[in-house]
Design brief:
There is one protein chain. This protein is an alpha+beta fold. It has 3 domains: about 5-105, no CATH class; about 125-350, Hypothetical protein af1432; about 360-435, no CATH class. The protein has 16 helices and 11 strands.
Length: about 425
């Protein structure tokens, strides 16, 4: 990558020229930590955000403590001068290609936003509507998959009521539906994966500011992108060991099989077909079937590819145990800028949280609970329903606390999440606890 250095040890770039570059690159600069000061807005670090306590969405350096911490853990940071103080050019290094690509990515996401959804219903009230919608959608996808396995045609009408009810619930309050998705998780991977991807697609689309029709298309894409697997040999789908080269080729053929089904189904839009065709493409060109990369992959295909991977990681598969939602988020973050577009990964994490809804977590005082809601501006401090006390014994009555507001426990000790826990930790069965 060609670079223009602006260190004191190299040639200084005049501020007039630097300003011209700024306009093209969204005014973001790579700055040595020796040159960071109070009032600067940090939009990126030189290490994963998840390894730090700093907010993923960026932050203004307001205290000496923050300044010193950055200088301890980083060698450089990325400073957005449109949102804060400008750096001394002696400490700036311009990475033109990376910044231009970043600008394009942010601009593309900004163009997607057409509305800002607000919470219209509290969690408990929405849970009733979400429960009914979840059951309707689940029945619909099971019927559709059974039809296809039986050689019958895809009937979109069987999905209509469930999709409409789900989108209505998610636009009112997405936490309720995501919560139900986790506690109603079943063993049938095919159905549950389609359902999970559809729910996450609509939830992520809401976060990105898409309108109802766009949410509907994303949700249907999530339900339908793997319908071609109903035509694959059962022994391949049921194989626990690694697939050989021939079997891998057959498995990858499910994309073409899906497209054949959808292209012969009335009512399936071109956008849905395009996202199904590209959901296994990867940002760095290593995906299939065409090896597309970057913006050659439609944005909806990039979104579904990211969601497909996240939901797969959090489900038990024949060849791999499920990761906890927190572990899955961490894995996605490691793949930003390679398999997945960085801006999409970061926005998805803002959607689901570092500890996504439905995650089991252990608090700093030893109590165990399940996340019921995430806060985009306080990603490490969600709302948690407490289940076990400090000795890991069941509480006589569950109660929900908001870590965004509650900073200390009953003994005055600082209260935070200590770690995410795997599914089933301490014998906790969400279905048994909440749906009996």
């Amino acid at each position: 990558m060609a670079r223009t250095h602006v260190y004191a040890k190299g040639p200084l770039l005049p501020w007039a020229d630097l300003g011209m570059v700024m306009d093209k690159m969204r005014q973001v600069f790579k700055v040595s930590v020796q040159g960071i000061e109070l009032g600067m807005f940090v939009s990126r670090l030189d290490r994963p955000w998840l390894e730090t306590s700093f907010p993923l969405e960026g932050f203004e350096i307001k205290t000496e403590e923050e300044l010193q911490k950055l200088q301890r853990i980083c060698s450089h940071v990325y400073v957005d001068i449109a949102s804060g103080r400008s750096p001394d050019p002696r400490f700036v290094e311009l990475e033109e290609t990376a910044l231009v690509e970043g600008a394009r990515g942010h601009d593309e996401l900004a163009e997607l936003r057409k509305t800002d959804w607000s919470i219209q219903n509290d969690f408990n009230s929405e849970l009733v509507h979400a429960d009914a919608a979840h059951d309707t959608l689940e029945r619909g996808i099971e019927e559709v998959m059974q039809d296809l396995k039986g050689g019958r045609e895809l009937d979109l009408q069987k999905l209509h009521d469930g999709v409409e009810a789900m989108i209505g619930s998610i636009t009112r309050n997405p936490s309720a539906f995501v919560w139900l998705k986790e506690i109603k998780r079943k063993d049938n991977y095919t159905y549950q994966h389609a359902l999970g991807c559809s729910i996450w697609a609509a939830t992520f689309g809401r976060h990105l500011g898409l309108e109802i029709e766009e949410l509907r298309e994303l949700a249907l894409g999530g339900l339908l992108f793997d319908v071609g697997k109903t035509r694959l040999p059962a022994e391949i789908l049921a194989k626990k060991a690694s697939l050989d080269a021939r079997e891998t080729q057959q498995m990858r053929g499910h994309v073409e099989q899906s497209l054949e089904i959808l292209e012969n189904t009335p009512g399936v839009s071109r956008k849905i077909i395009d996202m199904v065709a590209t959901h296994h493409e990867r940002y760095n060109g290593t995906g299939y079937p065409r090896g597309l990369s970057g913006s050659d992959i439609p944005i909806e295909g990039r979104i579904l590819g990211l969601i497909d991977s996240y939901d797969a990681l959090t489900n038990n598969r024949l060849y791999a145990d499920a990761l906890s939602p927190h572990q899955a988020v961490t894995e996605l973050y490691k793949c930003r800028g390679t398999l997945f577009q960085s801006e999409l990964v970061e926005q998805f994490i803002l959607t689901c949280g570092i500890y996504p809804t439905g995650s089991l977590v252990e608090l700093s005082n030893g109590q165990v609970g399940v996340v019921t809601a995430v806060h985009s501006l306080k990603r490490l401090r969600p709302s948690v329903m407490l289940l076990l006390d400090e000795d890991k014994l069941p509480l006589p009555q569950f109660r929900t606390i908001d870590l965004g507001e509650m900073k200390e426990d009953a003994h005055g000790r600082p209260l935070s999440i200590k770690c995410g826990l795997p599914l089933g930790a301490y014998g906790i069965d969400p279905v048994e606890l909440f749906l009996d």
